[in-house]
Amino acid sequence: MRYSLKQLAVFDSVASSGSVSQAADKLALTQSATSMALSQLEKMLGRPLFERQGRRLVLTHWGMWLRPKAKQLLFDAQQIELGFYDQHIISGELSLGASQTAAVHLMPQLISNIDNEFPELRVQLGVKNTEKVISGVRDYQYELGIIEGRCDDSRLQQEVWCHDHLVIVASKHHPFAKYNEVSLSQLEQAKWVLREPGAGTRKIFDSAMHGAIDDLDVWREYEHVAVLRSLVENGPYLSCLPYLDVESSIERGDLVALSTPGIEIERTLSFIWRTDAVENPLRECIKREAKRMIKANKKKM
Predict the structure, then answer these.
(1) How far is CA 140 from CA 9, 14, 69, 206, in A?
(2) What tens digit of pLDDT does each residue of 201-240 get?
(3) Does position 293 have pLDDT exceeding 80, yes or no?
(4) Are 118 and 285 spatial neighbours (Cβ–Cβ below 8 Å)?
(5) How many independent structural domains does the chain possess?
(6) Alpha helices in the chain (DSSP H)
(7) How far apart are CA 163 and CA 267, in angstroms?
(8) In angstroms, how far is CA 60 from the centroid of its own chain?
(9) What is the extent of the structural domain holding 96?
(10) Do 169 and 134 fall within a single domain?
């Protein structure tokens, strides 16, 4: 066998960072040694694994074919090493991308539980909107993703984690706040502030409104839920946000959840990972603990 685990580790690190210098720093190698290992691997395989796009190195078709296979070999090598050093198999680092609602309201408890039960497992958390989490998992930035709604990319597996719903909210001072019910025509006349296109919350809301209201008056679109919540609390706007994100504001009386007959906006939070991903006990551990957490929380209610 002509290639080495070191060469595969260099290849995988360059693929993650798009940079030889960053890969060298991560692997504690010199930049020249990193470049040489990558060059030797490409020469041995007889195929270019990267092409330069601006200042970044991007995987070629051959590089994309090799990536999951290299990760499997590296993972197996790590498990062999951990086994001989008598370490627990649930040990190491996993990169996870999560949408805002999950990251703010569910991940802190989950990471705390994991820290208690599996102290050798480290979760690297990235917070993005659903569209960016999907692209991050697809492009190997994250080994596991948590998204809102559906993922239709055939390269990714999806598994439902838990259910949530969206609510249409207004300030306690908004004229609609005193109504028992708000009609579709009234919603159509309102000023809206919503999540940006690409956010899972926005996709679900747009789908629910399709055919019911065709022309919403959208004044602002923002990425951060806290900005939208504050705008609604202090202005003449409506928004549609996950209940988890507005529950405390509703309980304090700063926001009012409007009753809108005919509009029920349910959604799911789901795990996603690459279809060609290697078997990974760390990923399965996180999924298992996440489901256990939701079940335990329901029993407390």
Answers:
(1) 14, 12, 13, 29
(2) 999 999 888 888 878 899 999 999 999 999 999 999 999 9
(3) yes
(4) yes
(5) 3
(6) 5-17, 20-27, 31-45, 61-84, 100-105, 107-117, 130-138, 184-189, 200-209, 225-234, 243-252, 281-300
(7) 6
(8) 25
(9) 92-162+277-300
(10) no
